[in-house]
């Protein structure tokens, strides 16, 4: 990923927090000589060395996945920035947050390990429910998925949030983003470009 210096995030704690908060992404690999992508949720392992998840067994991506270097892309809030929001001359642009993770893929179909992945994903995404759902293991359902473990080799993190603009321009963009309902992007800009 192209990352100009102003937008390059290097703080590991911040990067891993972003990964955990924005863990629905795209898994890119090679299938029969072509790029292939699956949209899926992933979880960061406790030691921060792996992403884990699962694919439908019917998805052809898993057939050639084992041992491949893959790319997982995760994005956060993003949105259009109008130059009319600036005090100083500018051009139309798009502000966003993104992480690219290069990893070595392993697939598995061990029943206990698959149950662990399903349980971990369920715990993570059910935690805010008033009455969290608990997995009931139907063998047919478990046999319909294949587990993936992605050993992280490199992480690239880019937060393009107007850090190259003067404070007045950033404040104008934040104000207009809030007015259009893009409050998450506005908050990210306040934190990273205005330092609030």
From TrEMBL:
One of its GO terms (molecular function) is peptidase activity. The keyword Protease applies. SUPFAM superfamilies: FMN-binding split barrel. This is Protease synthase/sporulation negative transcriptional regulator PaiB. It comes from the Bacteria. Keywords: Hydrolase, Protease. GO terms for biological process: proteolysis. The gene is paiB. It holds the Pfam family FMN_bind_2.
